[in-house]
Amino acid sequence: MPDLTSRERLARALRFETPDYVPCSFMSFTALRRRCQENMYELVKAERTNGLDSFLFIPTLSRPQRPEHPELRGLPVRFDSAVEMRERREDVPGQHAVLHKEYSTPAGKLQTSVRLSDDWPHGDHIPFMDDYQVPRATKPLLTGEAGELEALRFLLTPPQADDVAAFQAEAERAHAFVREQGVLLAGGWGVGVDMADWLCGFENLMLLEHDRPAFVEELLEMIHVWNQQRMAVVLAGKVDLFIYRAWYEGCDFVNPKFYRKVILPRLKSDAALAHEHGARFGYICSSGIVPLLNDYLEAGIDVLIGVDPVQGTKTDLGEIRKKTAGRIALWGGVSGAVTVEMGEKEEVRAAVRHAIETLGPEGFILSPVDNITVDAPRTWQNLEVFIDEWKLRRSVKRPDSAGA
């Protein structure tokens, strides 16, 4: 088989076709991205220099460019023009200060409060949705009270014309870039339960699922409609792969019965929308996976992103591959935070070998899960080992292919 481009290699993996070798494409590479001054185009070039099968994700807005939604990559989040926001800081003697934020809408007010910590990254600002605010919130934005969802509607507006035009211009640039570099074009992110968790808090949302399921279902339907409005814009950009973030949709956080009744129908709709536009549908979930594999098959997911054999619960690689073989591609296989950033060199080699032998060669993309964030000598040394072992595996024939 002639050498493939990175785009062709990843596309074959997503279609469960035989590649020239298992592709290696990092889900996220924050440590290198920072060295590239947050420029996603330069990141792709740097990854390609290291031999990786990179992909470009659009839109490429960096965290500083999305202050209301730093954890949600994608189009800008805009509010209705009638919404007014007020933020204030309350200093508490002997304790960390408390930030308060109020959204005033034509349907009423929504309020949230957060107790600061030494590692709070947002100054005197509370984003609309963010991982950091959930464990620090003294009051989440949504508590299940009457009138909250009516007010929330004014914060979930469709993409604005200026943002759509900016994305269309970037999509044109991105297509020229990926043709030149021979890499895959991805877009997103879609979102569902993750957003509900940001707005309600993890424990509170789980309690609401039990005590007020109608409230949660209405909330998720609102998010679903808003999400598909954003999906339509990104998919019109002709991306190869649409990615939906679902780190908090595993069975660590969601009851499987609730998943099947409330989440699965909407997920099927999202996957179908991606397929209508000719894109593959990728789903990021790194824990609580095995009990939901039948649901993933029913949903029409093309690739499960973030398979982590160390940090995730219910993520046995062999079981996941057996259940998904031929139908859902897998992306990951090695823990980034534990094995690559903290492990010994031989542990890294063994993990790469195990991932490729268990999950490859068809329908598998090798990656540290979820990310490489620590910019330290040990990390870069282990990354050299990771990539070296992957390259060694390219030339090793599987026993069942000997003599073929």
Descriptive labels:
seven-stranded parallel β-sheet; TIM Barrel; 404 residues; alpha/beta
Write the topology of this structure.
Blueprint: H1 6-14, H2 30-35, H3 40-49, E1 55-58, E2 84-90, E3 98-105, E4 108-115, H4 133-136, E5 137-139, H5 148-152, H6 161-181, E6 184-190, H7 193-200, H8 202-211, H9 213-235, E7 241-245, H10 256-276, E8 280-284, H11 293-299, E9 303-307, H12 317-324, E10 329-335, H13 336-342, H14 345-359, E11 364-369, H15 377-394
Parallel strand pairs: 1-6, 6-7, 7-8, 8-9, 9-10, 10-11
Antiparallel strand pairs: 2-3, 3-4, 4-5
Helix pairs in contact: 7-8, 8-9, 9-10, 10-11, 14-15
Describe what is shown at a glance.
The chain is α/β, with parallel strands linked by helices and 404 residues long. Helices cover 43% and strands 16% of the residues. It has a seven-stranded parallel β-sheet.
Task: Please provide a written account of the structure.
This protein has one domain (6-78, 142-401): TIM Barrel (Alpha-Beta Barrel). The protein is built from 15 helices and eleven strands. The chain has helices at 6-14, 30-35, 40-49, 133-136, 148-152, 161-181, 193-200, 202-211, 213-235, 256-276, 293-299, 317-324, 336-342, 345-359, 377-394; strands at 55-58, 84-90, 98-105, 108-115, 137-139, 184-190, 241-245, 280-284, 303-307, 329-335, 364-369. The protein is of the alpha/beta class. α7 packs across α8, α8 (202-211) crosses α9 and α10 (256-276) runs parallel beside α11.
